[in-house]
Structure formats: C-alpha cells, structure tokens
Write a structure and sequence with these properties.
Helix content: 10-25%
Number of strands: 9
Oligomer: single chain
Order of helices and strands: HHEEEEEEEEE
Structural class: alpha+beta
Strand order of the largest sheet: 4-3-2-1-9-8-7-6-5
Shape: globular
C-alpha cells in the first residue's frame, strides 16, 4: 500500500507540474512540499514539511513551503540554529523530476553550490542528498535521515 501511495503522490506532483504556470519557483515550491510530504508520510499540506539530519556535517536540513516562498529550505547546525536560509531571493534553477523517485534540485550562487534532494520510491523516510561545490569542484553525497515533520524539533 505504501508503494502505491508513494507512486500516486509522485504522479500527482508530475501532473501538477505539467499544468502549473510557467514559473519554475512555484513548481519547485510544490515539489519541495511533496518531498517533505512523501518522506514524512504525514500528508500535511501546511507550511512545514520535515527535518532531516546529515551525520557527516552534523547538521539539519529543514524543507518547507510557505505562501510567500520565503522559506523553501534551511540548513541548521545540530542545535537548530539557522546556518543558511534558501529563499526566492537567493536560489536559481529550481527543477522537479520524477524518475525512480522524486528529485528537487536548485542552485545557490551565494553558496557556490548545487543541491538536490531525492526521495526514492520506497516507504523509507530518508532522503538522498547531493551537493556539488562549483568553486572547488567537490561533491557531497549522503543519505540524510528523517527526524521529524516539524522544523522546531531536532
């Protein structure tokens, strides 16, 4: 049943993207929310979608969606303090793709990095993270583990 629900959610996001206006950020906002919803398996349609932990860098990723698109994603330290907030004003090239899962990707010139978050088609709540540092030609690939459906919990 979980596989069916995940496949249905991915298909719904793809259809939503196909009928969205020609505004890649709006599509990406929906995509970030969809990743959070699928990974958190909470079905929430509010602003907060979920928190994941990157053990290599001892940091938290908070994926969010809000009506102003001011808080798409946040990188926080292990104590929950915001390191960097990805917003409409500092990200470029939002993309949504669905192949063997759902992937949301974006670039951030301020950080000299390209980011992608992938939710594989499984019941697992963890995400695959890929970060490419364009300045140093380095990559960071990790499985970031699900923490909560809330941005306030570590």
């Amino acid at each position: 049943m979980k596989k069916f629900l995940v496949a249905f959610a991915v298909a719904a996001v793809v259809v939503m993207g196909a009928f969205a206006q020609d505004d890649s950020l709006n599509t990406a906002v929906g995509a970030v929310g969809a990743v959070g919803q699928i990974a958190a398996d909470n079905g929430a349609s509010g602003t907060l979608q979920g928190t994941w932990y990157d053990s290599k860098y001892d940091c938290l990723w908070v994926l969010t969606v809000d009506s102003t698109a001011s808080g798409l994603a946040e990188l926080r330290d292990a104590n929950g303090e915001v390191i960097f907030k990805f917003t409409r004003n500092n990200v470029q090239n939002f993309k949504l793709s669905a192949s063997n899962g759902l992937t949301v990707s974006f670039d951030c010139a301020a950080k000299n990095r390209q980011y992608s978050f992938t939710k594989p088609l499984s019941g697992d709540k963890d995400l695959k993270l890929h970060v490419y540092n364009t300045e140093y030609n380095e990559t960071h690939d990790a499985t970031i583990t699900y923490r909560s459906a809330s941005a306030t919990q570590n």
